[in-house]
Design goal:
- This protein has eleven helices and 15 strands.
- By secondary structure, it is of the alpha/beta class.
- It has two domains: 122 residues, Aspartate Aminotransferase, domain 1, CATH 3.90.1150.10; 237 residues, Aspartate Aminotransferase, domain 2.
- The strands form three sheets. The chain has a seven-stranded mixed β-sheet with strand order 4-10-9-8-7-5-6, with helices on both faces. Strands 1-2-3-13 form a four-stranded mixed β-sheet.
- Helix 9 packs parallel to helix 11.
- It starts with 13 loop residues before the first strand and ends with a helix.
- It binds pyridoxal-5'-phosphate (PLP).
- Pyridoxal-5'-phosphate (PLP) binds next to helix 4.
């Protein structure tokens, strides 16, 4: 059997990883400023994380959600404490799309409605409601297109006000738009969304799947604005590569037996991985490191490119590829062995592990300096 070829692949196969570095089978070393799509939070192969998974494997790796599982409770308690959402409850699943799908479902159950207000340029995943709320018709199949979704412009307060009404089940916003190219909702937009959700009795969902888990220098990106959404979705950095996702749910929302469910969500191994991630984030002050290293990284990049084209917070940064260096991302990987992310049409995204250090930042900056000065327009 062949693989179903849906990905455009780089001709590189990492076989080993540690911290912010990856190695291929020939021993070539690559610096990771992409974190496998914002997934690597505590660094590759953190020894404490590895040990926690191994220990769990020796005990029990899976049983269904029909029995008690105290590792889920430990995870919920630690996540509540570190994120500042101690009074919320947690539903566990396996991926980002699934977290959004469940959040939309909760909003629809609670409001009794089905209209979703989402943002232009948004990405929320590939499954039914999540992809319908994603502003990219190329990945929406006819079977997903039946959802009632209205897209409004980012930071367009008037359009948001016009779109949200008494038919609305949910307003769905990314903490920072990631796949769309690192665009941030401003405080006024977050606050207007929260206000409209209260006024029309619909639910505000914050998709923090890429922007959460400490990446921006706060646990969740929306926490810079002071709002409290009804639902917050998370995945990626939550398991540092072990598949796990979750929905943080406001205490106003009451569950009932059978409201949501999953076979694999919250399994023992995934929870052990996610608990280790939270312990390491806390013990190693990684949220603070993301804030500090983010400042170092953004000020250094700001000296190399037009500062106005640099966007984002902490270690979730993006900038427009300068016109005189259109192959910058390809050159970084081919010539300098540095992984970065992209966003169409021309954005470079930086999503390194949260424990990246100044040495690694200097290596990236030196490579950027070489590439940008080599291609300087005459
Ligand atoms: C903001 C956001 N939401 C949802 C998803 C979907 O997550 P997953 O690929 O785990 O389904 C992604 C993935 O890139 C994302 O960036």
């Amino acid at each position: 059997m062949k693989l179903f070829e849906v990905y455009s692949l780089l001709p590189i196969e990492p076989v080993r990883a540690e911290g912010s570095w990856l190695w291929d089978k020939d021993g070539n070393r690559y610096l990771d400023f992409y974190g496998g799509h914002a997934v690597i939070s505590i660094g590759h192969n953190h020894p404490k994380y590895q040990q926690a998974i191994k220990n769990q494997l020796d005990k029990i790796s899976f049983y269904s959600n029909s029995v008690l599982n105290s590792i889920q409770e430990e995870l919920a308690e630690k996540l509540g404490r570190l994120s500042g959402y101690e009074d919320y409850s947690l539903f566990l699943c396996n991926s980002g799309a699934e977290a959004n799908e469940n959040a939309l479902k909760i909003a629809s159950f609670v409001s009794g409605r089905k209209k979703i207000v989402a943002l232009k340029n948004a990405f929320h995943g590939r499954t039914s409601g999540a992809v319908a709320a994603t502003d990219n018709p190329k990945i929406v199949a006819p079977v997903n297109a039946g959802h009632e979704v209205v897209f409004v412009g980012l930071n367009d307060l008037i359009s948001l006000e016009q779109a949200v009404d008494d038919q609305t089940a949910a307003i769905l916003i990314e903490g920072i738009q990631g796949v769309g190219g690192i665009y941030e909702p401003n405080n006024a937009f977050f606050q207007k969304a929260a206000e409209l959700a209260t006024k029309h009795q619909c639910l505000l969902i914050l998709d923090e799947i890429q922007s959460g888990y400490g990446r921006t220098g706060k646990f969740f990106a929306h926490q810079f604005s002071g709002i409290k959404p009804h639902l917050i979705t998370t995945a990626k950095g939550m398991g540092n590569g072990f598949p796990i996702g979750g929905v943080l749910i406001s205490p106003e929302i009451k569950p009932w037996s059978g409201m949501l469910g999953t076979t694999f969500g919250g399994n023992h191994l995934a929870c052990a991985a996610a608990v280790a991630v939270l312990d390491i984030i806390k013990e190693e002050n990684l949220i603070e490191n993301a804030a500090n290293m983010g400042t170092v990284l953004s000020s250094a990049i700001g000296e190399l490119i037009a500062p106005a084209t640099l966007r984002g917070k902490g270690l979730m940064l993006g900038f427009d590829t300068p016109a005189h260096a259109p192959t910058l991302r390809q050159n970084l990987i081919k010539k300098h062995r540095i992984f970065t992310g992209e966003a169409k049409p021309n954005v470079i995204r930086l999503l390194p592990p949260l424990n990246i250090g100044s040495t690694e930042i200097e290596i990236l900056i030196e490579a950027l300096r070489m590439e940008l000065s080599a291609n300087q327009p005459q």
